[in-house]
Structure formats: C-alpha cells, structure tokens
Design brief:
Layout: H1 3-19, H2 23-30, H3 35-46, H4 50-70, H5 75-106, H6 111-115, H7 137-152, H8 157-173, H9 179-202, H10 212-231
Helix pairs in contact: 1-9, 3-8, 4-5, 5-7, 5-9, 7-8, 7-9
C-alpha cells in the first residue's frame, strides 16, 4: 500500500466515524422530502445496481469469446476489448461480493426501519433486506465501476465519478442508507477497484497510464523525426 492509499484509507475511516454523528438527523430530514425529488432519486438510483454494469460487460465478454472461436482470424483483434470488458466485470463483481459479505457481518437496520420505530443500529450476522444498510451496495459498485471505466476512458473520468456521486446521494434521499453507509461504500468500492485494477495491470490486461507530459514528449519526438526526414 502506497502512502497516498494509506492516507486515503485513514481519511475514509475518519469520515465514516464522523458521519455516524449526523446519520439520524439526516435520515429524519430526508423523510419529509418532496415527492418530485424522490421520483428523481428513484430514477437515478436504478443505475447503481451492479447488474447495470455486470450484464452488459458479461455479455460483451461472452460474445467476444464466441466470435473469436467461430472466426479465429479476428480473435487477436478481439483480445484487447474482451480483456477490458472483463476488467470492468471483475472489478464490479469483486466490489459487490465484498459489500454483500460485510452487510451480513454488520447487519445494520436501514433508516426507514429506524424511522418506523421497528429496529435500529447494528445486529451483527443477521440477514435480510432491511438489515443490509452498511455499507451501501449501490455506492460500492458505482464507485468501483466509475474507477474501472475511468482507467479505460480517462477523458470521461469526471462524468463517471459524478454519476457515482449522484447514485450515492440518491440512496440517502430515499432513506435506504445512512450517510455513513454511503461513505463506507465509497471507500470499499475505491479500495477494491484500486487493488483489482492494479492486479490486472500487472498481468497486462490493462494498459499502464501514460503521463500527459510523456505523451507530449512522444508527439514532439515524432514530429521532429518527420521534419528531419523531409529535410533529408
């Protein structure tokens, strides 16, 4: 773990601990949210399901493998795209599985359960939809997907991360997660994504990130070569 990653993990844990102090006041405030805002939040939150990422990437991987098998001549050209789609699938799937395991371990009741006066807090190793609040699964998979997509399409990183943020906020607005659940999900999703993507890069599945100045040097060098050849 690098110093930056270690500092990020510490900051994430502190943010989760601090969020516990305002979890319930925020949940109570969301209970009176405007119906129009709730409808928008339900629309946004749909995109945070892991299946929204897993199904398309899984289909792409299977379709690519089938095409390569039926048409061996294009198998080499399909290898790169297949690995990239598989990298997204593996990252999101790993984040989702880790989140599901932690939900069972912590067994935290969702905000709407507490607001109804039924149950609240953590009840370790209890299973059920209403006890799956910590951490937020939508946030975990959304952040993991955003980072995986950003690794492949760095120009669109702000868009991917903004989408993950909106999905995380929608979970709070809908009173299905506390603020600390969402922060924990973001930390978990980022940690899993960094580890999985780093592991895949070491195995050549993903191209290493080329610094901007390195690309500029390459362009200048190429231009110099062309200019020199013209003069000769």
């Amino acid at each position: 773990m690098t110093t930056a990653q270690r500092n990020g993990a510490v900051a994430g844990l502190l943010a989760i601990l601090l969020a516990f102090a305002v979890d319930r006041p925020i949940a109570r405030a969301m209970a009176g949210m405007d119906p129009a805002v709730l409808r928008l939040a339900r629309f946004v939150t749909w995109f945070g399901q892991g299946a929204v990422t897993l199904y398309p990437t899984g289909i792409l991987v299977l379709a690519g493998l089938a095409a390569g098998f039926l048409l061996p001549g294009i198998a080499g050209r399909l290898a790169g795209p297949i690995r990239k789609a598989a990298a997204i699938f593996i990252t999101v799937a790993a984040a989702g599985l880790a989140d599901d395991a932690l939900k069972i371990v912590f067994g935290r009741a969702r905000p709407y359960v507490w607001l109804a006066g039924d149950d609240s807090g953590f009840g370790f190793f209890r299973y059920g939809a209403k006890f799956a609040s910590f951490p937020s699964g939508h946030t975990t998979t959304s952040v993991a997907a955003a980072l995986a997509l950003s690794a492949l399409f760095p120009r669109w990183r702000p868009l991917f991360l903004s989408a993950a943020l909106l999905i995380a906020l929608s979970r709070i607005v809908l009173d299905v997660h506390y603020l600390s659940d969402v922060i924990a999900g973001a930390v978990l999703g980022a940690a899993i994504a960094v580890w999985v993507l780093g592991w895949l890069k070491k195995r050549g599945w993903l191209p290493p990130q080329i610094p901007q100045d390195s690309r500029l040097v390459g362009v200048v060098a190429e231009g110099a070569k062309k200019t020199g050849s013209k003069r000769n």
